[in-house]
Fold each of these.
Amino acid sequence: MDKQAIIQVDTVSKHYGTNNAIKQVSFQVKKGEIFGLIGKTGAGKTTLLELLSGNQILDEGAVKVMGFDMGTEGDKLKEHINIFSQSTSLVDRLTVREALDMFQGFYHQKNNVDGILKQFGLTAYEDKVVRRLSGGLRQRTTLAIAVVNDPSIVFLDEPTTGLDAQAKKEYWAILAALKLQGKTIVIVSHDMTEIQYHCDRVGVMREGSLVACDSPTKLIAELPGGGLTMEAVYMHYAVSNAGGVGV
Ligand SMILES: Nc1ncnc2c1ncn2[C@@H]1O[C@H](COP(=O)(O)OP(=O)(O)OP(=O)(O)O)[C@@H](O)[C@H]1O
C-alpha cells in the first residue's frame, strides 16, 4: 500500500443479482485530500461509497482503509470513519443538539459538541428542531453529525444537492476547515463547479467502472481536443461515446 494512501481500492467488484454495479475498480485516496466521485445516475457512486465505508460487502477485490482490510477488520474502523447519507429523517424531529448527542452516543471516540456547534455556525440553532431549519442549516447539521466521533475520514453522498449558492459556499468552507484539520473527505456530487474548485482529485464513474481519476486540473488539461471545465470532463468520460478511457 502506498504510504500516503489512506484508502486503497484494489480490483473491487459488486453486483446486485445480475446487475454488475461496480466492475474491477482500483484507485487510492491520499490522507488529507478531498476526493470527488462523479458520474451519471446509476453509474455506481453510492455503491462505491458504501463499499469504502463498510456499509456494503464487496464481491471481489479488496478495500483497505487506514491499513485495515474492510472485509475482515471493518469493525476496527467504526471509530475512525463516518458517512453522511441522504436520509436525515431519523433526526428530523430532534433539536440540533439532541441529534449530535444521540449520534455521539454510538462512539467511544468523541468530538466536543460545543466546539462542533461553533465551528459549523450552529450554536444559535442548537435548540431548534432539525426539520424546521433551512436546507443549508440542515445539511450543516448532518455534516456536524458526521464528525461527532472526530473521524479521520468522512464520506458524503450528494450533501449539497438542492442548496443555493450561498449555502453551498458555506458548506464548502466547513469542508475546507475539516481538510485543514487533516481529515480526508470523499464526496459524491453532481455539481461540476464545486468539484472543479474544491476537490484535490476526482474519480469519474461510468456504468460501474472508474474511467478516469486525477486532479481536476489534469483531467481538464488532458481532455482530447482540449477543454476548460469539469463539465467538459464529465461530458467526455461519463456521458459521450468518446469516453471510457482506462485509468
Ligand atoms: N440495493 C440495491 N439493490 C439492487 N440494485 C441496486 C441497489 N443499489 C443500487 N443498485 C443498482 O446499482 C447500480 C448503481 O447504483 P448507485 O446507486 O450506486 O448509482 P449512483 O451513481 O450512486 O446513482 P445516483 O447518482 O442516482 O445516486 C444501479 O444500476 C442501481 O439500480
Note: Residues 243-247 have pLDDT under 50 and may be disordered.
Amino acid sequence: MTPAETSDRVLVLNPVSGNGNHVDDVATLAGDHGFDIRRTEEAGDATRLAREAAPDADLVAAAGGDGTLNAVVNGVAAADALETTTVAVVPAGTGNNFAANVGIEGIEHAFTVIEAGRRRSIDIGTANDRLFVNSCVGGITAEASSETTTESKAELGVLAYVKNTVETVGEFDSLPLRVETASAPDGERARAWEGEALFVLIGNCRRFTGARTAQANVEDGLLEVTIVEDAATANLVGGAALEGLLGRDSAHIIRRRAPSLTIESRGDSVEYSLDGEMLETETLRLETAVQRLTIPVGDGYRPDPDDGDRWPLEVPANR
Ligand SMILES: Nc1ncnc2c1ncn2[C@@H]1O[C@H](COP(=O)(O)OP(=O)(O)OP(=O)(O)O)[C@@H](O)[C@H]1O
C-alpha cells in the first residue's frame, strides 16, 4: 500500500444501507472530522476495506446498519487489530439497533461522540469462525428477512422478522435442536435443552424482550439466550402479541445466560443471522470474547442495564 492510501481515521461507507439518503451528510461530516472515506461498491466490500485500513488506522468507523458494523468488526479482527483500532458506529441503516443500544442517536451525534464521548471495551460474540456484536438469530429465513418492511422493522426490531416469517411462510418448519449452555461465573449451571424450537435468539448487546432497543449487559462476558418453543406457533399464527409471547410469563420461552453455548441441529442445517448477515451450519459454537472491542459510546449507554429493569430469567422449575 502506498503512503497516500494509509490513514489514521477511515470511514467505511455503505451507500445502499437504510434508504440510501445518508450519503451526502455522512461524507460531509466525515470530511470535516478528518476521515478518509472508503465506499463499498458491492456486498462483501466492507470487511475487505476495514481489514486493509486497520493496520494503520487508530479509528475505523462503520457508516451503515448493523450489517455494515458487523462486516467492519470482522475486517478489523481479520487484520488482528482489535487491540489497537477503535471501531465507531455511524448509524445509517434501517434498524440501527446496535447504535441505539450504545447511546448513539444519529449521524451527527455519532461524530460528536467520536470526538468527545467515552470509550468502552465491550464483548464480542463469536459464532464458529465469525464475529457478531449485537445478535445471532437462528430459524429466520433469508427470504422472510428480505421481505420485512421498514415500518415493521422500526416498530418491532428483530421481532419483526419473527412475525414476518410466520406470516409469509405460513406453516413454519420448527427446528429440532440441542442447545448446551456452559456454566456462568454468577452461579448459573451448565444445562442442556433439547426439543423443537421455532427460533433461537442469542444476544450480546441486545436482549429479546419485545422492546426494540432493549440493551443487554455487553461487558459481562455473557450471552443472553432465548429459545422460543414450537408450542408457541399456534399463538403466533393466532395473532397473539409478540411482546406477550416473549414476556416474563410465557411458558414457551426458555432463557439462559452463559459465556458459551453449542447449538446442534438434529435435522438439516440451520440458517443463522449474525447482525443480519447469514450463516448456514449444522453445529454452531458461540462464545464471548470478553471486552475485546473498543468503541465510543454516547451518554445514554448503560454498562449495567439490569439496574431496576431485570431481564426475565425466571423459568419454570421443571426446565
Ligand atoms: N455497495 C453495496 N451494494 C450492494 N450491497 C451492499 C453494498 N455495500 C454493502 N452491501 C450489503 O449491505 C448489507 C448491510 O446492510 P446494513 O445491515 O448495514 O443496512 P440495513 O439492512 O439498511 O440496516 P439494519 O441492519 O440496521 O437494519 C450487507 O449485506 C452488505 O453485503
Note: The domain at 3-116 is CATH 3.40.50.10330 (Rossmann fold).
Amino acid sequence: MVKAVVLGASGGIGQPLSLLLKASPLFSELALYDVVNTPGVAADLSHISSPAKITGYLPKDDGLKNTLTGADIVVIPAGIPRKPGMTRDDLFKINAGIVKGLIEGCAQYCPKAFILVISNPVNSTVPISAEVLKAAGVFDAKRLFGVTTLDVVRAETFVQEYSGKKNPSEATVPVIGGHSGETIVPLFSQATPKLDIPKEKYQDLVKRVQFGGDEVVQAKDGAGSATLSMAYAGFRFAEKLIKAANGEKGIIEPTYIYLDGVAGGDEIKKHTGLDYFSVPVELGPNGAEKAINPLTNVDAQEEELLKAAYAGLKGNIEKGIEFAHNTPQK
Ligand SMILES: NC(=O)C1=CN([C@@H]2O[C@H](COP(=O)(O)OP(=O)(O)OC[C@H]3O[C@@H](n4cnc5c(N)ncnc54)[C@H](O)[C@@H]3O)[C@@H](O)[C@H]2O)C=CC1
Ligand SMILES: O=C([O-])CC(=O)C(=O)O
C-alpha cells in the first residue's frame, strides 16, 4: 500500500506525472494538490480503471494537510517555469517561497515520506527543503531527493546519435553535479556499455545535455519548459524508488542529495567541497542507501567540466540556505 502525492498537480508536469502514477500498479492511493483545478484533474483521472484511489485538494479546508497525511512519497513540481531568456536561477524569487511552504507542510504532516523536488532551481530548492526539515527536527538525508533524472534521460537519448546505439534505453550514462547549465556534468567515460564518441563531437554532445532544457524552452516559445519528458523522468525516478523500497535490489539512479547523511557521501563531500551533489545513488528500503563516488575515475575533459560545476553549485547552495534561514516560517 503506497500513497503518492503530487504538489503542483494541475500544471504542465503535474498532470502527465499524475497520469503515469495513476496508471501504475505500484500505487494504492494518489492525492493531488494545487492552488487551482485539482478537483477537475482528479475527477478526470478517477475514470481510469487502475487500483489507485484518487483525491484532489485545493488549499481551502485543510487541503494540504489532507493531501499529505499518510503520504509515502511526495513529488513536487509546483512553481513557475522558464520563458526564453531566463535562467533557472531567475525562478528562485518565486519558487523558493513556494517550495519552502510546501516542505513546511511535509515536515508537519508526513515527516517520514520520501520527498522528490522537481521545482527549479533544483540546485537551491533542495538545500531550502533540507533546511526547513532540519529546523522542524525531521530531516533525513536519505529521504530527500533533487530530481535530476531528466538530465540522465537526455544523455541516454542524445548519445545514440553519436554512438550508433539504436535503443537509447540500452545506454546508461551517469550525469552528476547539479541541474542547470554548466553544473550538469555527463560522464560519458563511465557509460555502460562503453561508448566510442568521436573526439570532434564530444563538446557538442556535452552542451546538448547541459542545455537540453533551453532547447525545449526555445521551442515552446514562451509557453513554458519541458513537461512531458519531465513527467516521464519524474515517474521513472519515483517508480525506481518505490521498487527499491519494496526490496528490489541493485537499483541505482543519479539524484541530487545532501551528502552528509548518506553512506559514501563523506568521500564525495571531501572531493567536491560541497554539501549537495548529484551522484549515482543505490536506492533501498530507507531511500538513498549509498552514494557511489564517480569522481576518482573521470577523464581530463570531465575534470574540467567538474571545476565549472563546483563553482556554480557553491553559490546556488549558499543562496538556498540563506533564504531558508532568513525567511520567517508561515
Ligand atoms: N527538475 C527538472 O528536471 C525540471 C524542473 N522543472 C520545473 O518544474 C516546475 C513546474 O513546471 P511546469 O509544470 O511546467 O509549470 P506549470 O506552471 O505548468 O505548473 C506549475 C503548477 O504549480 C502550481 N502551484 C503554484 N504555486 C503552488 C503552491 N503554492 N502549491 C501548489 N501548487 C502550486 C501552479 O498552479 C501550476 O499548476 C518549474 O519550476 C520548472 O522549472 C521543469 C522541467 C524539468
Ligand atoms: O529548462 C528548464 O527550465 C526546465 C528544466 O529544468 C529542464 O528541462 O531541464
Note: The chain has a mean pLDDT of 96.
